[in-house]
Design brief:
Blueprint: H1 7-14, E1 29-36, E2 39-45, E3 50-54, E4 57-62, E5 80-85, E6 92-105, E7 111-122, E8 134-143, E9 149-158, E10 174-184, E11 189-200, E12 210-220, H2 222-225, E13 232-235, H3 254-273
Antiparallel strand pairs: 1-2, 1-6, 3-4, 4-5, 5-12, 6-11, 6-13, 7-10, 7-12, 8-9, 8-11
Length: 278
């Protein structure tokens, strides 16, 4: 049975590359939108941590360490976004986007940048089977000064048969880590776009909650830095860059604790086993 997705859900969830745009030359910002039926609220905020809530569904953003607990991005050091659609929200969506830049200082050698982080995308089983229901996605995109992709990671999940909607197959569903690397010229500036989306495409007989979360961390390859001094990453004012799970005074939710523990363990193994660049 084909499902007619709403324009907003299709544009956001099924055409994710279209929202991974290069950041314009302005201060770090975030866009949050929550919809419930005909009720829609939207805000465009700067680097302050923020949560936009409508009847239990929420879009959240956080740019740096803060004692404010912001949903799934609770107490995280550095940029993170999340979207949560409650079971009670039968006709809605939550959308969070964060945009910021960082500059590579030093020179003249090309600098290897490592990117790692945590993500979590949860979709409940549809009910009844074949009826359609919910969509969730989380992504991070890094672009160079010319707008070319330096790195892209996406988790895109549905709880209905994807080919009925002419959409891409689900990928990277669940909760885990992501990692990658790219070379950067000294003095270059990179744009980062984080995106989390949770939306309902059609009613379920037994609706369930939907969540999406992503939290990246950047660093110069520590092995490379041992023989190259004077290099650093400079982030926009108000934007932190700590390993996922770095916490000050906020107490994270239980689901966040479990995700952080599993993700940090995987990241530690990866760093210990990473070969030196040739």
């Amino acid at each position: 049975m084909a499902i007619d997705l709403s324009g907003s859900v299709r544009a956001i969830a099924l055409a994710i590359p279209s929202v991974l745009l290069a950041v314009e030359g302005h201060a770090a910002r975030s866009d949050l939108t929550v919809k419930n039926g005909s009720n829609i609220i939207h805000t465009d905020v700067t680097t302050a941590p923020f949560v936009l809530d409508l009847n239990g569904s929420a879009a959240t953003v956080q740019f740096a360490i803060t004692p404010l607990c912001v949903g799934l991005a609770c107490g995280v050091d550095g940029p993170a976004v999340s979207a949560a659609l409650s079971a009670a929200n039968l006709d809605g969506s939550a959308d969070a986007t964060a945009r910021y830049t960082f500059t590579v200082l030093g020179g003249p050698d090309p600098v290897p940048i490592l990117l790692s982080g945590l993500y979590s995308v949860f979709n409940p089983p549809e009910f009844p089977d074949g009826s359609g229901g919910t969509t969730a996605s989380a992504s991070v995109s890094i672009k160079d000064g010319l707008g070319a992709d330096a790195f892209v990671f996406q988790s895109v999940c549905y709880n209905y048969t994807y080919f009925l909607n002419e959409s891409s197959p689900p990928k990277n569903c669940g909760a885990s880590t992501f990692a990658g690397s790219f070379l950067a010229s000294a003095g270059s500036t990179f744009s980062v776009v984080l995106h989390a989306f949770a939306g309902r495409t059609s009613p379920d007989a037994v609706p369930g909650p939907v969540t999406a979360y992503i939290d990246p961390f950047f660093e110069i390859d520590p092995n490379w830095r041992t023989s190259h001094s004077g290099y650093a990453l400079q982030f926009e004012p108000g934007v932190g860059n700590g390993a996922p799970g770095d916490i000050l005074t906020a107490v994270p939710e239980p689901e966040t604790v479990a995700l952080m523990a599993a993700g940090l363990a995987a990241l530690m193994v990866r760093r210990r086993t990473r070969p030196r660049p040739v």
